[in-house]
Write a structure and sequence with these properties.
This protein is of the alpha/beta class. The chain is built from 16 helices and twelve strands. Strand 7 (about 310-315), helix 15 and strand 8 form a beta-alpha-beta unit. Helix 14 (about 295-305) crosses helix 15 (about 330-340). It binds iron/sulfur cluster.
């Protein structure tokens, strides 16, 4: 059953009236016929959302008009990578448009069944840089700490398909302790990315324990929670979670909005709560063919994110993970997007465009070329409108 039908009233969250002119740009999700009778109390409860996720074809058919392609793709992919969509995120889908950006991120497509010759099982080489299970230590002063295999929703473009949704890869308590011991014994680590899966799939108690242990280590300065819950399950950012996270500041939250349609009133509220609790929120968009490979869409998304107090931080080129080649765009598309942002909008709305070096090379930034010519101490530069400007290096001037 997709949802129950008991009707109760619960107090609606009230946004600061000062922000009304901004918040009216963020529409609340339309639950449609399927969930219209679910009580406000249930709908705003993250555990209800998790329990009532859309997981089967039968449930999906109640939400959208499933195409033959989607039906075949579901049947061919469900063994490898679960389908799981929260009612909140499913309600954002266009029931009639298979190219809806929400639907493309959550409902299997036939492209998933194709393994391209260039695909890699572990595209970022995370396993080879694991000194102990669950900790990837690649860069000198920071680590990625794997805490769960669960996510609220399984994104069809996930780069960690090999582990995510697979119970055999779950981080047991013993593995967590081994990871915490590794971090404790490496004073060069100052920054920990708490990851998964989605770390917010852990209970508040477990997260409190992990963050408390990290905070007790003198060398740990900051940590980040890498979560998509503000996008797929904003109800997770409730009062208990906020109270818990306040104890562990400074906390950075790295999230993953991919399309302006995901910027709803519910997502706005979740981000506002985190920002009010002192969290700094960064967005890591993944460039996806047919979803956001358009400069206008990315600009609109980034403008909305800034209003939500979320800084557009990265645009990731789609990785070489298995079964996601249908989402890949040429590298030139990412450069075109940056070219269309830089100068044309606030610098705050211009993220870094990066390719994660396949096999474990780390993040490689790519920017359009703005140096047109260099001769001696003279550098010819172009600006965003392609107008030319000459700059002179002072070191060469001193030699003259
Ligand atoms: S939330 Fe992140 S880890 Fe989970 S399925 Fe989506 S992309 Fe993968």
């Amino acid at each position: 059953m997709v949802g129950n039908t008991k009707k109760e009233t619960a107090p609606k969250q009230v946004l600061n009236p000062v922000n009304e002119r901004i918040t009216k740009r963020f529409p609340s999700v339309d639950r449609g016929k399927i969930w219209q009778d679910v009580s406000e109390k249930d709908w705003s409860n993250w555990m209800w959302q998790q329990r009532n996720r859309v997981r089967t074809l039968e449930q999906l058919e109640k939400v959208i008009n499933v195409t033959d392609d989607e039906r075949k793709a579901y049947e061919g992919s469900v063994e490898m990578f679960n389908m799981s969509i929260t009612p909140y995120y499913a309600a954002l889908m266009d029931p009639d448009d298979p190219n809806c950006p929400i639907r493309m991120q959550s409902v299997p497509k036939m492209g998933e069944l194709t393994i391209d010759v260039t695909d890699l099982e572990d595209p970022l080489g995370e396993e080879k840089d694991m000194p102990v299970p669950g900790v990837t230590h690649r860069y000198p002063d920071r680590v990625l700490f794997y805490t769960t295999h669960n996510c609220a929703m399984y994104c069809r473009h996930c780069t960690r398909k090999r582990k995510v949704s697979d119970p055999s890869s779950a981080a047991q308590k013993k593995q967590l302790e081994v990871g915490l011991d590794y971090i404790r014994n490496h004073p060069e680590i100052r920054d920990v990315v708490i990851s998964g899966g989605d770390p917010l799939s852990n209970s508040d108690e477990r997260l409190d324990y992990i963050m408390g242990e990290l905070r007790s280590m003198d060398h740990i300065e900051v940590f980040r929670l890498g979560t998509r819950n503000m996008v797929t399950l904003p109800q997770r950012i409730n009062d208990d979670f906020i109270q818990m996270i306040r104890k562990h500041q400074p906390v950075f939250v790295h999230t993953h909005f991919n399309h302006p349609k995901e910027c709803t009133a519910e997502a706005f509220e979740a981000c506002a709560r985190l920002a009010d609790a002192g969290c700094m929120i960064n967005n890591q968009m993944v460039l996806l063919k047919g979803i956001n490979d358009d400069p206008g869409i990315v600009k609109e998304l980034n403008h909305k994110l800034l209003m939500m107090r979320v800084r557009p931080y990265y645009i990731f080129q789609c990785d070489l993970a298995q079964g996601i080649s249908h989402f890949r765009t040429p590298v030139e598309k990412g450069l075109e997007i940056i070219e269309n942002l830089r100068g044309w909008t606030s610098g705050m709305a211009v993220p870094h465009y990066v390719v994660d070096g396949p096999g474990g090379g780390g993040k490689i930034p790519l920017i359009p070329e703005y140096v047109k010519e260099r001769k001696g101490n003279k550098v010819v530069l172009r600006n965003y409108k392609n107008d030319e400007f000459v700059y002179y290096d002072s070191s060469d001037l001193e030699e003259d």
